[in-house]
Amino acid sequence: MSIKVTLTKGTISSIKSGDLFLLISEEQFNSIQKSPKTDYEKEIASKIVKSQFSGKSNQKISLPLKKVRLHLFGLGKEKEITSEVIRKAAGSVANYSLAIKITDPIVCADISKLSASQTCEAITDGIHLGAYRFDKYKSKDKDSIKLKSLSLLTNSKDKGLSSSIKYSNITCDSANYVRDLQMENADVATPLYLEKRARELAKKHKLKIKVLGEKELTKLGAGLILAVARGSKYPPRMIFLEYNGNPKSKDKTAILGKGITFDSGGLNLKPTKYIETMREDMSGAAVVLGTIKAAAELKLKKNVIAVVSSAENAIGTEAYKPGDVFKSFSGKTVEIGNTDAEGRLVLADALAYTEKNYKPSRMIDVATLTGSVIVALGDYVAGMYGTDDKTMTSLFNSGEKTHERVWKLPLYKEYIDEVKSNIADYNNMNYGRNAGSIMGAAFLSKFVDKTPWTHIDIAGTSWIESGRKYYAPGATGFGVRLLINYLKNN
Ligand code: BES
Ligand code: MN
Ligand code: ZN
């Protein structure tokens, strides 16, 4: 159940009951202390001493007043306030509300630094994302509560506020939909389950859907995804969903997601400390489903194809073996240098098939492709590669706006030339661990012919070990807000 967000016209003086949150800068707090004007300000000035609260970020204080409970959250210095600062403060409001059992917070959205619509959007983002918990498998805790509603209090006359709120509702609910998929058990969220969820979306939003199963993939000669899937009892699926928001235009963007529903590493088995979170190796697939869902709900005037390439990388007597060679859908053959470099295999077949059969204007793939991208960028920024500088520049800008940031890394010819084998056309891992994330991208590049292409390695950003302001530990849904911002603006 998602949180209902409403707009309330007025100032804090018009609030007569409930829990009222003020996100406040150091300067604003100072001026209230020096010369309080309203009754509220007089109470704040008389009841708070500066040693307790001064508006610094991370500070908070609660004041039980006569009718309302007032909660002040610091934003830091005025000049440092951005949408992200507000998103984070709102995330703290969500966490605090859950902790002290406030189900219906009222948050004042008049923060002079930003426009009312930017502020409303950022607060709504922070509340939706910050209040998310994956508690499906917890025995029902009588004491735990959910956030029910958020009232945004503002005096602004801006007519665009409700559309900013709606945008945040849809994009964040979709991000949370992605997080549910990422967090779900690997034996629940199988390739077939992703198909089921895709069919639900198709039905609900009247999207065209095509699903390739084992039989079709065999007939097509998609030998790479079939090789990866061989060791698993769950058959692979390649899923295509089409949203045509602008039927008059021929322009269409294909977004492709890696959907490894569990990555054991295969016969090159992953060790302890690397295997525990591998049910999230379908994050890219979840992101493309979440993105097309949001695009349809927002009725974006864009044409989008979401492609899920899904298999389980399991271990067993049927599993594909290092050293063996398989033929891809594109016709090129691949020697398996390492069965743990499976993501590039399922994506290679998906990229080649999508380019040939859908002829998109551009392809963007999203994948938890390499541990190396975590070594390079940690879990704050995703790695980006490709042949499509225009799209990469736009994605960079969308990343700055949404704080789902991407950073371009090099894909020079020297790297691409290293993707070679003595016995096949290519090898999926033959360059050691050096430049690991780049080599993943270099391998993929061999399966894209002419279509402008971007690859985003989200292995680091898709999941965080410890919680942050608006992220509980675990899945982040990283990518939906980025891609929707990109699609909307391009
Ligand atoms: N799914 C992993 C990458 C990954 C690591 C995702 C950590 C999320 C968190 C991927 O399939 C993988 O195993 N990559 C290998 C590639 C190597 C064998 C060339 C890696 O990065 O170690
Ligand atoms: Mn792997
Ligand atoms: Zn993987």
Query: Quick one: CATH class of the largest domain?
Result: Alpha Beta
The CATH homologous superfamily of the largest domain is called Zn peptidases
How many β-strands, per DSSP? 19
Taken together, the total number of domains comes to: 2
Look up the CATH topology of the largest domain.
Aminopeptidase
**Could you tell me the strand content as a percent range?**
15-25%
Largest sheet strand order: 7-8-10-9-13-17-14-15
Q: How far do the termini sit from each other?
A: 31 Å
* Rg computed from alpha carbons, rounded to a whole number of angstroms: 24 Å
Shape summary: elongated
Q: What is the helix tally?
A: 15
Q: Determine the structural class based on helices, strands and strand pairing.
A: alpha/beta
CATH architecture grouping of the largest domain: 3-Layer(aba) Sandwich
The biggest sheet amounts to: 8 strands, mixed
Q: Helicity range of the residues?
A: 25-40%
Q: Residue-averaged pLDDT, rounded?
A: 97
Give a verbal description of the structure:
With 490 residues, the chain is an alpha/beta fold. The protein folds into two domains: 155 residues, Leucine Aminopeptidase, subunit E, domain 1; 319 residues, Aminopeptidase (3-Layer(aba) Sandwich). The protein has an eight-stranded mixed β-sheet with strand order 7-8-10-9-13-17-14-15, with helices on both faces. A six-stranded mixed β-sheet has the order 1-6-5-2-4-3. Helix 4 links the parallel strand 5 and strand 6. Helix 4 packs parallel to helix 5, helix 6 runs parallel beside helix 9 and helix 12 crosses helix 15. The radius of gyration is 24 Å and the shape is elongated. The relative contact order is 0.11. The mean pLDDT is 97. The site of manganese (II) ion has 4 residues, from loops.
